[in-house]
Amino acid sequence: FRARLMYDGLAYAGLQFQENAPSIANELQVALAKRTQQDVRVIAAGRTDTGVHARGQAIHFDVDGDRFSDDPEAFQTAVNCMLPQDVRLVQLERAQERDAEGRRWHSMYWATGKLYSYRFHSGHPIGCMDPTQRLYRHQERRGPLCLDRMQAAADYFVGEHDFASFANKGATGVRQSPAGVRLPSLSTVRRVRSITIHDEGDGYARADVHLKGALYKQVRNMVGLLFEVGDGRREATDVPDLMALRSRTGLPKPAPALGLTLESVYYNVGWDGAYRHPLHTDTVGL
């Protein structure tokens, strides 16, 4: 099966299953196990950090068809009745496609790209932020921010670059397997396809980031730098030199998690083509 997943991330230590902390995956796997009477492992298109939200996460999971058979709509309804109110499974359907080598549809490898949105209040001198948005929108108190300056800086991120300066941990160091074997370092090269700063009026704003895949905290680290450009502490033209450093030293903290939402994961296959996007055409692949 494949499905879309929506969640409010405030109460969770991220999507990924964790032994000693609440996670979205744990809540979903418990509900699926109850419904199917099987151990079910959920595979997501990508992780989200502690406190980050999702409106369009994508997942897949396998069940033993000989032991469980259910209409997807009834299955979805039953699972949602078992989930907490801040997690919902939607658009559940069977995933029967295979690639040219016979491999089954996979939420991570068959994805073509993602859209993240970061919502913030720019510190507009006339208005103030609606307190009902405080859990899902960051209020930047160093404002007012110049959105044109932020857009000029964001344009430097677009394209394929080494984003080591915007990766929070472990992306550039030597890795070891559980057996202690040295492994090659993970690549920190990523492709950002588009970043647009939207003025929503009265100090409200949103950064939409289309990319093929992101490093750990990459989007929040990029937005944190955009805030410093927006309030005049840095220039947009500083961005290329900061990327070339390949180090977090001297860069600002990541923007707070509560403003970030995974809006969509895109695919060429599945959901009757509803998640095709002209910016995202090639799959992530193995």
TrEMBL record:
The active site is at D49. Its EC number is 5.4.99.12. CDD domains: PseudoU_synth_EcTruA. Substrate binds at Y116. Keywords: Isomerase, tRNA processing. Residues 153-268 form the Pseudouridine synthase I TruA alpha/beta domain. It catalyses: uridine(38/39/40) in tRNA = pseudouridine(38/39/40) in tRNA. Pfam families: PseudoU_synth_1 (PF01416). The keyword Isomerase applies. InterPro entries: PsdUridine_synth_cat_dom_sf, PsdUridine_synth_TruA, PsdUridine_synth_TruA_a/b_dom, PsdUridine_synth_TruA_C, TruA/RsuA/RluB/E/F_N. It comes from the Eukaryota. GO terms for biological process: tRNA pseudouridine synthesis. GO terms for molecular function: RNA binding; tRNA pseudouridine(38-40) synthase activity. It is an enzyme of class 5 (isomerase). Belongs to the tRNA pseudouridine synthase TruA family. This is tRNA pseudouridine synthase. It comes from Phaeocystis antarctica. The lineage of its organism: Eukaryota, Haptista, Haptophyta, Prymnesiophyceae, Phaeocystales.
